[in-house]
Amino acid sequence: MFDNFVIPDFLPAAPEIFLATMAMAILMIDLFIKDSRRTVTFVLAQATLVACAAIQVFTSTGEITYTFSNMFVDDMMADLLKLFVYMTMVIVLFYSRAYLFERPNMNKGEYYVLALFATLGMLVMISANNFVTVYVGLELLSLSLYAMVAMNRDSLASTEAAMKYFVLGALASGMLLYGMSMIYGATGTLEITELAEALYNGENNRTVLVFGLVFLVSGLAFKLGVVPFHMWIPDVYHGAPTPVTLLIGSAPKLAAFALVMRLLVSGLITLAQDWQQMLIILSVLSMAVGNLAAIAQTNLKRMLAYSAISHMGFMLLGIVTGVVSGDARYALNAYSSAMFYVIAYVLMTTCGFGVILMMSKAGFEADNLDDYKGLNKRSPWFAGVMLIVMFSMAGVPPFIGFFAKFSVLQAVVASGQIWLAIVAVVFSLIGAFYYLRVVKLMYFDAPQDDSVIVAPNHIRILLSANGLAVAALGLAPQVIMSLCAYALLRSL
Amino acid sequence: MSNYPLLSLAIWVPIVAGGIVLLTGGDRNAPLARMLALIGAVLGFLVTIPLWTGFDVTHGGMQFVELHGWIPRFNINYHLGVDGISMLFVLLNAFITIIVVAAGWEVIQNKVAQYMAAFLIMSGLMNGIFSSLDGILFYVFFEASLIPLYLIIGVWGGANRVYAAFKFFLYTLFGSLLFLVAQMYLFFQSGGSFSILDWHKLPIELGPQIWIFLAFLIAFAVKVPMWPVHTWLPDAHVEAPTGGSIVLAAIGLKLGAYGFLRFSLPIVPDAAQELAGLVIALSLIAVVYIGFVALVQADMKKLVAYSSIAHMGFVTLGFFMFSPLAIEGALVQMISHGFVSGAMFFCIGVMYDRVHSRQIADYGGVVNTMPKFAALFMLFSMANAGLPATSGFVGEFMVILAAVKFNFWVAFLAATSLILGAAYSLWMYKRVIFGDVANKHVEELSDVNGREFLILAVLALCTLWMGLHPQPFTDVMHASVNDLLRHVAVSKIQ
Q: Which chain regions cross the lipid bilayer (chain B) (predicted)?
């Protein structure tokens, strides 16, 4: 019965395997570590991530490689996204450390281990070539995050947020599964590459397919957090401890982008006409609701949650302009612009939450907008960093956020949908208002308390580097832009 | 000399100087920050002088060109160059920066380093706007220059500064975002080029031309500002600190007008001809209606702000009559307005620093306590009214002369500006300066100190120089304006 058992090629999945092993090892090791020496766990987790990145670089062939019976794919897009995931996670853990250290009830090994498992989930999502792999990766990520949101178990808000996240997330997973099963029913395959061929060649039951597609897109929309499936985002961002918010708001967006690419572009590109229409509606609604609702917020984390909704809506614009009336000439341009947008967004959002984390002290979360009053008096340097992030998010040059918006907008204009570009631009203008308000609080208002901001040096340095990267990559966006284009060229 | 990257120096010297000034940190080091800022501003001006001395006035095309790849993926280049239209603005900008740094010398005591740095960085960015030959590079400078001015108004401004800063930023951003979409359209029409010079040659049908023109119009009309999108300007001027008002009036307003010449006219000439009537009508409304509005202002800064709008109406009027005389007149008017409005705002600043009021009603009889100041203020008020022998006269006269040829009624309405300008400028002057000493504050006024006198004297010399001998200025423009008009005369519709 084991006659045709072939040992799969483990190499393409080497970083995942290493990460899984290490995560479990760290979980065990942590049992023997006292709370006061939690730094060991931190260092181990960071070392694991760095090692993963190294393995990723050394095992990358640049070719499209399938393994585990085509369940798992490794290509340039995956490599690039994964490297950004590692990088983001390293930054996230650095930013989180001081916060956790000041709050002993949260400074447990579980934070680091769950973060590693969440990373593993993202990696699997990025490399999935089968509906089952997609689902496994997604659930691994989600389950880790559900637990992390509830890390601060004495906090009512956190628990409520976790509950909401769990219930809605489960519902979304159910929808996604339902959509997948419909598509399986219509085509008879779970494998994404086979699915694309089956759709291209075969006569399929279109009704069932589109029916499945609707559920699939709804499930994706939940995970991306776009309107009208966005309800969980503000509550979870607000309720979760800030390091967890930082985690949820950053790296998983990269994985969600990969998910959209794998499912919709690699798998269902023949149905592009159908899903593009759905995504256009989701995108425009997200930009509208995200930007308008953000104006009314008094809590910075909540504001950034709505900002995330609008940014994801903007990113979707890049995805919806890939195929225009059957013409896929601009597809590469469009998808790589969306990819660049996500990477730029992740870079900005880590920096934004990094400032929140730096400002917070034990018993003080620094998440109200008013906490930022007069920051320029208290710490001109970090007010400057936050200023860069805010203007970048608003899409004002010369920061990277402008080029992210630029690349997506040019893809939209290239596809001939100028009205869509104008809609996007008008909502960006509305969005600029609330980013400007943060700058106003920091620069125009007097501080509420004059206490000096204390933060460990490594956080100061990393945060400065992050902020300068947002500015410097705006002056030289070419590198990441062409990396994205090249990776997608080699992967599609 | 042209082997040196002069334009890059003009852009980056002030920006780097601004960065260095920022590093001086808190107000403990304020004297050092001021000194460094002055050195940076003077250096920034010195590097622009070779642009004038090395300029070939017989050549209408771009000079001092620098071209380097920037974002090859979208064919965006670091492409700089100036012609007779833009060169003078680079110099004017660098010159005004020195004035502004000097103007804020004693007045600004709070966050000095940030104040000086904001002006230096803005100066560099504005030089970038005037010398960009790449659409996206232009846009990056155009937008980035909003950030320092937003902070200047918001941090060092008056009581209602937050409202003014937001209004300023959002208004301008709205205009420029549509401009960005139009640029992307041109990018794809031209087969993947963001070069402004390529766009000049690009044939476009009339329909798209009209849309592009309207997108440009919104962007530049907000910036100029033209009636009816001018309402942000009086707010911004009133709330901004003196230095902010000077830069905004002297340089900020020129950006929009410059955009018309660099983008609207040459890229979509047919639409420009088609819609010239619209722009001329809006300009005349600005000249006449805003002139009357200026007349009734009780706040001096508001009055000068409205008079700026009226003067800029003259500029846009000149552009859209498509004659060399009119365009050159408009350009002379722009430069003259840079000196005169800058000086006017500085004069108001001088009085405000002493009395802390901008209301005309709070003054009267200032001549009794500040005779030197009153004399200089007189000169600038006259220039603002367009008195012959001052720079204000030359530009207006050229535009009116061209307008007479163009259409009598246009000329008639434009000429009312001379009367209205005299009315609001001189009436304000009379109420503020002449008469008996109005109150205790005026009685306690001290005349201008050495620093203030020097600034005003330099500006006065510029005003008179341009008024008496404008030829060096028009010589520089001549070839480029002729080239532009020859280009505009050829239809792009195929």
A: 6-23, 35-55, 85-105, 112-130, 136-156, 168-188, 208-233, 245-263, 275-296, 303-322, 334-352, 373-394, 406-427, 448-468
Q: Where are the domains of chain B?
A: 1-156
The tokens for B238 are: 């009133």
Residues of B in contact with A477 (CB under 8 A): 71
Look up residue A247 and give its two tokens: 């985690």
Alpha helices, DSSP H, located in A321-456: 331-359, 375-378, 380-394, 400-414, 418-443
DSSP SS3 for A285: helix
- Average of per-residue pLDDT across B324-345: 90
Strand partners, B148: none
Q: Which residue of B has its CA nearest to A400?
A: B140
Count the alpha carbons within 13 Å of A257 in the hemisphere toward its beta carbon: 36
Which of A319, A303, A202 shows the shortest CA–CA distance to A258? A319
Q: Which residue of A has its CA nearest to B180?
A: A406
Cβ-Cβ contacts under 8 Å for B472 (sequence gap 6 or more): none
Residue numbers in A near B166 (CB within 8 A) = 433, 436, 440
Q: How deeply is A69 buried, as exposed, middle or buried, from its count of CB atoms within 10 A (0-12, 13-18, 19+)?
A: exposed
CB B410 within 8 A of CB B418: no
Q: The whole model's pTM is what?
A: 0.92
C-alpha B118/C-alpha B113 separation (Å) is 8
Which of A396, A403, A481 lies nearest to residue B146, judging by beta carbons? A396
The reported pLDDT for the residue numbered A114 is: 93
User: What distance in Å separates residue A302's CA from the closest CA in chain B?
Assistant: 22
Domain boundaries, chain A: 11-489
For range B32-54, the mean pLDDT: 88
Q: Give the pLDDT confidence of B164-219 residue by residue, as tens digits.
A: 889 889 988 888 888 998 998 899 888 888 888 888 888 888 888 899 999 999 99
The chain-wide mean pLDDT, for chain B, equals 87
